[in-house]
Amino acid sequence: xxxxxxxxxxxxxxxxxxxxxxxxxxxxxxxxxxxxxxxxxxxxxxxxxxxxxxxxxxxxxxxxxxxxxxxxxxxxxxxxxxxxxxxxxxxxxxxxxxxxxxxxxxxxxxxxxxxxxxxxxxxxxxxxxxxxxxxxxxxxxxxxxxxxxxxxxxxxxxxxxxxxxxxxxxxxxxxxxxxxxxxxxxxxxxxxxxxxxxxxxxxxxxxxxxxxxxxxxxxxxxxxxxxxxxxxxxxxxxxxxxxxxxxxxxxxxxxxxxxxxxxxxxxxxxxxxxxxxxxxxxxxxxxxxxxxxxxxxxxxxxxxxxxxxxxxxxxx
Length: 316
Prior knowledge:
This protein is α/β, with parallel strands linked by helices. The chain is built from ten helices and twelve strands. It folds into three domains: about 5-20 and about 205-300, 4-hydroxy-3-methylbut-2-enyl diphosphate reductase, catalytic domain (Cobalt-precorrin-4 Transmethylase, domain 1, 3-Layer(aba) Sandwich); about 20-105, Rossmann fold (3-Layer(aba) Sandwich); about 105-200, Cobalt-precorrin-4 Transmethylase, domain 1.
């Protein structure tokens, strides 16, 4: 006799998971392995996801914290988050074969910082202290050229004259709404502050947050598949809670799910951070299917068609 299973409706966010920058970074590593053979070295995690990192390690990738841990005779790759200028300069000095997997949208912020600096503007960066992308962006310019703030309260601590040439840039993976509040505070205090021609928060971050905002009010619980050190995944949790689903939590993979957290849940939202592969979402859905009478629906805010080419040295 079959045991009756409780019904569960899964709402799947679209878009979710890998963005074009993450996809490009991982392909750079995979093509480098084909081109140069193992081992290939990568400075920092290529993207912030444990599954991705462990999968690449199994193929012969060695992840290191700093460049001096990589030997002179093997290729080294810089992560999607970007690096300070001192890193490629050191690679050049050592005559290393190196590949830059920095997301093109992060590189855009680097160029903005350079442009503003050359134009004589002081620069404020909105971002999270210590995040690799922030470290890399601030490292494009001399120390002290960029001032970091993490919230609207930090605007009051900026020691600038109101008529001083000033510009702001942002980390690409921030909460859209929180960043808007910080920018508003900057505009109030510094009305003439120079703004990016196009906002720095990347399309993928914006789209994933929009999907979560649309989905959260319909959910009893919501799971964001992603790693704890993934900024964009953490922001999705915050956005979902603000949008009406208090029972939102981050999950690395299906095996780490405490099923008691889904007691009383009949509508479960699932999304994934931009560095989380779709296989982790599918494994979670399969695990739910084993325990529930499952139906799935998609909550879509649009499709993504963005694609970034590989570096010429790998596509030639």
